[in-house]
Amino acid sequence: MNSQSVLNISNELELLTGELAGMGGLVEDMLSDALSAVITYDVELALEVVDRDGQLDKLKAKVEHKIFDLIERRQLKGQDLRQALASMKVAVELRRIGGLSRSIAKRTSQLKDYERSDQTKSLARMGRLVSSQLKRVLDAYGVQDIESALDVRERDEEVDEFYNSIFRIMVTYMMEDGRKIGACAHFMFMAKKLERAGDHCSQIAEIIHYSVTGEYPAIERSKVDEL
């Protein structure tokens, strides 16, 4: 394999990373807008998020097609093959986060009569943390930064703590006022979706580690919900 071929493969992998960056940007917007829709009870914005789900599917299919084509056409091996496979795994994780964002957005219409409260603020804070995790891990993927990726993975514990806190708050509110059971159940559902989105950010962090080193990071703790 001559140097020109190596350069071309490198360029194609860079283009692939750019395609994933576009997909990641869409998912970031979906998550951010889904949370904004819930917090402000903006049903129109929520419907826009739901509609973007189809666009995300198309982007994922496009990325996967390019990956398969690149692997077959270039007969990738070693680090190049790992990077291509890692890109496919990242696309899957992004699709799942997009699906979770869609699920959150769909709850908006069912909360329009629910007063602004501490629960809403707690969900907003949790959402900002998960959104930050997503942005940081996508940035880490773009430059293959293992250190930043592992930091995102470590901070997943903070997301779990947010979820457990919101769960307890919701249970307390439901016990105090039965009329709030329905709304609180929706908030618990959305908090769980955010917790799952945080898990997928951690998965992307592990994929980055695999892409660079050929190995997944050691498992340091079991992923078990406290509640």
Return the string of H and E elements: HHHHHHH
Helix content: over 70%
The CATH architecture is Up-down Bundle
Give me the count of strands. 0
Which structural category do the helix and sheet elements fall into? mainly alpha
Assign the CATH topology.
Methane Monooxygenase Hydroxylase, Chain G, domain 1
What is the number of independent domains? 1
Q: Quick check: average pLDDT?
A: 91
> How much is the radius of gyration in Å?
19 Å
Reported for the largest beta sheet, the result is:
none
- The CATH H-level superfamily is Phosphate transport system protein phou homolog 2, domain 2
Globular, elongated, flat, extended or rod-shaped: what is the shape? elongated
End-to-end C-alpha gap? 55 Å
Count up the helices.
7
What's the CATH class label? Mainly Alpha
Query: Low-confidence segments, ≥5 residues, pLDDT <50?
Result: none
Query: How much of the polypeptide forms β-strand, as a percent range?
Result: under 5%
Organism: Hirschia litorea
Function: Plays a role in the regulation of phosphate uptake.
Keywords: Cytoplasm, Phosphate transport, Transport
Subcellular location: Cytoplasm
Structure, explained:
- The protein has helices at 3-40, 43-74, 78-105, 118-143, 146-154, 156-176, 181-213.
- It is built from 7 helices and no strands.
- The longest helix has 38 residues, at 3-40.
- The model has no long low-confidence stretch (mean pLDDT 91).
- It starts with a helix and ends in a 14-residue tail after the last helix.
- It has a single domain, classed as Methane Monooxygenase Hydroxylase, Chain G, domain 1, CATH 1.20.58.
- By secondary structure, it is mainly alpha-helical.
